[in-house]
Amino acid sequence: MRQRKIIPGVDAKWLIKDAAKLMPDASRRGFLRGAASLGALTFLTGCDILDGDTAEGVLRKISEFNDGAQAALFSRSKLAPTYPESAITKPFPFNAYYDEDEAPEVDGKTYKLEVAGLVENKKSWTLDELYALPEVSQITRHICVEGWSAIGSWQGTPLSEFLKRVGADTRAKYVWFKCAEGYTNTIDMPTALHPQTQMTFKFANQILPRAYGFPMKIRIPTKLGFKNPKYVVAMEVTNTDKGGYWEDKGYNWFSGL
Amino acid sequence: MTAETISMTTADAPIHPRWVRVCHWVNAVAILVMIGSGWQVYNASPLFDFEFPKQITLGGWLAGALLWHFAAMWAVVINGIVYVTLGIATGRFRRKLLPIRPAEVIADIKAALSFKLAHDDLSHYNAVQKLLYTGVIIAGFVIVLSGISIWKPVQFQELTALFGGYDAARYVHFFAMAAIVGFLIVHVALALIVPKSLRAMITGR
After folding, report:
1. Which of A18, A20, A82, A105 is the most buried (most CB within 10 A)?
2. Predicted confidence (pLDDT) at residue B6 exceeds the cutoff of 50
């Protein structure tokens, strides 16, 4: 199964399941509203090509095709541009689907990072153990799916280094993350092994504040912001695409930059 | 070559060959999808102090709009490559759109504003048409390249840098859209004023 040549991010079985599941009702109606406002197009073509479910299914299929196209474009050696300290956006914006005062408060003393799936060593990691890992720094641009961007400074350990230490099977297709508030995220293995993909413990050389994801964020400068999970409490190396909070609602799965 | 040029303009040949008409209408549909969904994407993080009314946007919400935008982009780009390749290879661009002489443009604008601009021969473009059609092809290049810069600012970072970086590329993308929408308003209005030009783009005659 793992020997098969598979495009990262595209798992036929789960794609079909996801396509069937699609979106919550409210969003689905949103889709139809959008389709209805395409009156001009219907007028031009003289037929109703925009039956909501059909259009949505086709769009989902094309989005899956785009996952493959982006995986093909992705280069493990192409680094995201880096910036001088003077370019850092101040204040760096807080962004989530909830307000800042509703952000998870993780207790650093009892925190343990769970490691699961296709790894040799499944022991959990305390914060002290994580802080003892080699530290690298990056000043890169965070780009939100909404369009805005901000430059930040992040310090931590390369995810590839951590995966090596836990004996992860890097032939696996995905790494899945779970966050304290229930947010989830799945990334492709090539991105997980990219030299700038970082298990982040500090922002601007200070312990990650609650707003930016204490105690651990996964910083991925080659992906849109929502593919950079904060408050990470568990990770799993897997061949099953478990999706993610926003991806399941219709955002593109790969979302590479 | 001269003989060919003449034969292309004889009464037997359609005003617009089939490939022009097919590319035109594929592009018309795809570009409307791109504009409508692009306006919805813009609303998620507006560059200026306004938003596009929801009724004229496509997708319902950001994720829906992005699905439309990144689907229709393939149609725009593939159709655009076919159109530009054939436009150059058949000599149509050179024959129809060049040369553009500033003096003729000014004279034709004056004639148009006084409603004296002749439209007798649809196979021949006046200087204003040449300028607008050439301009919108250039805007097409700019909107695609700036779009790629926004979509892939890491993989194609050299291109993004050419536009002055990620944030600047968003503005370029917006203004290229504004130029195309401006062209569309004039283009559609004139097609309705001169209905035989619309017929020519459908039937070729």
Report:
1. A18
2. no
**C-alpha angle A115-A116-A120 in degrees, rounded to nearest 5:** 90
Q: Does A84 touch chain B (CB under 8 A)?
A: no
User: How high is the pLDDT of residue A21?
Assistant: 39
**Separate counts of helices (H) and strands (E) for chain B:** 9, 0
H or E, element range at A69: helix A52-73
For chain B, say whether A26 makes contact (Cβ under 8 Å).
Answer: no
Give the domain ranges of chain B: 14-89, 91-205
- Tell me what pLDDT residue B11 has: 54
Shortest CA gap B165–chain A (Å)? 10
| Residue A157: how many other CB atoms lie within 10 Å | 19
Question: Where does B91-205 sit in CATH, by number?
Answer: 1.20.950.20
Computed from CA positions of residues A113, A116, A118, A123, in that sequence, does the dihedral angle turn out positive or negative?
positive
**Structural domains of chain A, with CATH:** 12-73 (no CATH), 85-249 (3.90.420.10)
**C-beta of residue A172 within 8 angstroms of C-beta of residue A189:** yes
Return left, alpha or beta for A154; rule: phi > 0 is left, psi -120 to 50 is alpha, else beta: beta
User: What is the C-alpha separation between B134 and B156, in angstroms, rounded?
Assistant: 27
Given the structure tokens 């549909």, which residue do they identify? B29
Arithmetic mean of pLDDT, A63-77:
96
Burial class (CB in 10 A: 0-12, 13-18, 19+), A220: buried
Instruction: Tell whether the model's pLDDT for residue A186 goes beyond 70.
Output: yes
The answer to whether B70 contacts A222, with C-beta atoms less than 8 Å apart, is no
Cα–Cα dist B201/B205, whole Å: 8
If you average pLDDT over every residue of chain B, what do you get?
Answer: 91
Reference A141, options A77, A216, A89, A208; nearest CA is A89
Strand partners, A138: A154
Question: How many residues make up chain B in this entry?
Answer: 205
Reduced to 3 states (helix: H, G, I; strand: E, B; else coil), residue B134 is helix
This prediction's pTM: 0.85
* B40-59 residues touching A, CB cutoff 8 A: 40-42, 44-45, 54-59
Place of tokens 């408060």: A105
Considering only CB atoms, which chain A residues are within 8 Å of B63? 27, 246, 249-251
